[in-house]
Specification:
Layout: E1 13-19, E2 23-30, E3 35-39, H1 44-54, E4 60-62, H2 68-71, H3 74-81, E5 84-88, E6 100-102, E7 107-110, E8 113-119, E9 128-132, E10 137-141, E11 144-145, E12 148-149, H4 157-168, E13 175-178, H5 183-193, H6 198-212, E14 220-221, H7 222-228, H8 237-242, H9 250-263
Parallel strand pairs: 3-4, 4-5, 5-6, 10-13
Antiparallel strand pairs: 1-2, 2-3, 7-8, 8-9, 9-10, 11-12, 13-14
Bound molecules: zinc ion and fe (iii) ion.
Fe (iii) ion binds at residues 67, 69-70, 142, 179-180.
Length: 264
C-alpha cells in the first residue's frame, strides 16, 4: 500500500542488501510517490528478487560508475522493468543503457527527494556520487569505503584527494552508503598507520563485533570517517609522521597511504 500514513516530507527510504561477494545493493524509495530506484546494478537477479519481495516496480537506476559490479545488471533490468538509467555524462560511452547523463552540481529529482551530483574522479575518471542533502544521505559507490577508499584504477592521487575532500565537506552526520563491505580489512590497515588513534582503536573493535554477528558496518558517517579514515587524514600531523612524511603535502601522503594499502 502506497502513501498510507505518510506525507510528502517523509525521508528517503533506503533498503540495503548484500550481494555478489562483498557488494551492497541499495533500493531507494520515495514513500510519498512510491517511486523506486536502484543505486547501481551489481546483480540483476538479486535486485529483481528484492523488488519482488516488496512488490515494488523499478523506476530508475542511479549508476555511480561503469565497473561490472556496478553497471553489469543495467541492460537486463532495463529490459525487464523499462526503468530509466541515470549516470555520469562524462562516462556515457561506458555506462550500458544510459538515458540521462549528469555532471557536477546537477540534480536528479526522485519524486519528492532530490539528489545532487558530485563528480569524484579517482577510482574511475567518470565516477559520481549522489547526495540527498535533505535526507542526510550520500551514495558514494567505490570512492570511499568505511576507513578506506577505492583503488586508483584510472585517476591520479591528486584527483582522488580532491574527490574525498568533497565528501568530507558534507555535514558530519551525513550517512555514507558505500558499495562494498571492506571495513574489517580497512580497519586492520588503518591501525598499522595510526595505532595510537583512540577513535580508530575503538571503531575497529566495534566493527569486529558487528562482523562476528554477520551485521553490516555500512553506512558510515562523515564524522566517523573524519576521525578514523587514513585516506581522509593525509593532512594530519600524526599520519604524516607515521608514514615518515612529516610536513609533506597531503597528495603525496595520500598517495603513499594508498600505495601501502595496495600491498597490504
Ligand atoms: Zn568499482
Ligand atoms: Fe565495486
Amino acid at each position: 500500500m502506497m502513501g498510507t500514513g505518510r506525507n510528502a516530507s517523509a525521508a528517503l527510504e533506503v533498503h540495503q542488501f548484500p550481494c555478489l561477494e562483498d557488494n551492497y545493493g541499495y533500493l531507494l524509495r520515495d514513500a510519498a510517490t512510491g517511486l523506486t530506484a536502484a543505486v547501481d546494478t551489481p546483480d540483476a537477479a538479486a535486485i529483481l528478487r528484492e523488488l519482488d519481495r516488496h512488490g515494488w516496480r523499478l523506476d530508475f537506476i542511479l549508476n555511480t560508475h561503469h565497473h561490472g559490479d556496478h553497471a553489469g545488471g543495467n541492460l537486463e533490468l532495463k529490459a525487464r522493468t523499462g526503468c530509466r538509467i541515470i549516470g555520469a555524462r562524462a562516462d556515457a560511452a561506458r555506462i550500458p543503457g544510459l538515458d540521462v547523463g549528469l555532471g557536477e552540481g546537477e540534480v536528479f529529482e526522485f519524486g519528492t527527494r532530490r539528489a545532487r551530483v558530485l563528480e569524484t574522479p579517482g577510482h574511475t575518471v567518470g565516477h559520481i556520487v549522489y547526495v540527498f542533502d535533505a535526507d542526510g544521505a550520500a551514495f558514494v559507490g567505490d570512492t570511499l569505503f568505511a576507513m578506506g577508499c577505492g583503488r586508483l584504477f584510472e585517476g591520479t592521487p591528486a584527483q582522488m584527494w580532491d574527490s574525498l575532500g568533497k565528501l568530507l565537506a558534507l555535514p558530519d552526520d551525513t550517512r555514507l552508503y558505500c558499495a562494498h563491505e571492506y571495513t574489517q580489512k580497512n580497519a586492520r590497515f588503518a591501525l598499522t598507520l595510526e595505532p595510537a588513534n583512540a577513535d580508530l582503536v575503538a571503531r575497529a573493535a566495534a566493527v569486529d563485533r558487528l562482523r562476528a554477528q554477520g551485521l553490516p558496518t555500512v553506512p558510515t558517517t562523515v564524522g566517523e570517517e573524519r576521525r578514523t579514515n587514513p585516506f581522509l587524514r593525509a593532512d594530519s600531523a600524526a599520519l604524516q609522521a607515521s608514514l615518515g612524511l612529516a610536513g609533506t603535502d597531503p597528495v603525496t601522503v595520500f598517495a603513499e597511504a594508498r600505495r601501502r594499502r595496495n600491498a597490504f
